[in-house]
Design brief:
271 residues, alpha+beta, Phosphorylase Kinase, domain 1, 2 domains, 8-stranded antiparallel sheet, two-stranded parallel sheet, 11 helices, 10 strands, elongated
Length: 271
């Protein structure tokens, strides 16, 4: 599981390099990219290539080359007179000033493809819960997370109809866990459920998604530990804790500022 985390984390950060080079990342997104660049030579090289391309595009000021009629006639004569047409006849005629525009066009094409790939693939359907942890860690609404993954507040009955896996028996939690709201999240056409519960003025968010749904916790360090005889992936922070485990027909991620024994209750009942 840790190798899978590392793979998706590297891919997500690599796709963010274009926006990082343009200064379009939020402060929360800049920090993990910088940390990753310190340890990843491949990404440092890719960032250098992106910046070099930007400088090259800024430097291009010459007018585009327009072939003359005489050039086309020479090409036609060469093709007609000999099957062994030599490309270097043309190459020698074209100066670097002319070829530069070909490189500029290729750079623009690559840049457009990079933007399209980041916008449309967004980690190929990977849910990045690390964005949610960033917002919760800073005790702010999960605005960045919901920008990436649209969420709709629904009733329990509507939530059951929205997904293909059995909905968690959230009503079996102790009465102290008051269900505040239920959301349906969508990631590249795949839907998952978010339960938000309140316990003694403390909040716990329980995400439930289908087995096999790709997801990541971003740059957060994950420890493997059993809870109630269930193998769990755990993230421990000063004011926040995240616990992931595999249920019978789905997978769960619980995030909140509850005590460890309170998380044990949730794992034991929903497993």
């Amino acid at each position: 599981m840790e190798k899978i985390f590392a793979f998706f984390q590297h891919r997500r950060l690599q796709q963010a390099l274009v926006l990082y080079a343009d200064g379009e990342l939020s402060p929360n997104e800049v920090t993990p990219v910088r940390r990753h660049l310190e340890s990843c030579e491949a990404c440092r090289q890719k960032l250098a290539d992106i910046r070099a391309c930007r400088e090259f595009l800024k430097a291009g000021k010459a007018a585009p080359f327009i072939p003359t009629e005489q050039l086309w006639q020479r090409i036609v004569r060469k093709i007609s007179s000999s099957p062994r047409f030599l490309a270097d006849e043309i190459l020698s005629f074209l100066s670097w000033r002319h070829w530069r525009w070909a490189f500029v066009a290729a750079g623009l094409l690559l840049f457009g493809l990079a933007i399209w790939n980041r916008t449309n693939n967004s980690g190929a359907g990977v849910i990045d819960y690390g964005i949610f942890l960033d917002d919760m860690h800073q005790e702010t609404p999960a605005a960045n997370f919901y920008k990436r993954y649209p969420a709709q507040v629904v009733k329990l009955a509507e939530a059951r109809q929205a997904i293909t896996f059995p909905l968690a028996a959230i009503e079996t939690l102790p009465e102290a866990f008051r269900l505040d709201c239920v959301r349906v999240l969508e990631c590249n056409g795949k839907k998952c459920i978010q339960f938000t519960c309140i316990k003694e003025n403390k909040v716990i968010n329980i995400f439930q998604h289908a087995p096999g749904q790709p997801w990541t916790l971003g740059d957060y360090a994950v420890a493997r530990t059993p809870i109630c005889n269930v193998e769990c992936a755990v993230v421990n922070m000063k004011n926040l804790r995240a616990v992931n485990w595999q249920g019978r027909a789905s997978e769960y991620l619980a995030v909140g500022n509850l005590a460890p024994e309170e998380f044990e209750q949730v794992v034991k009942i929903l497993q």
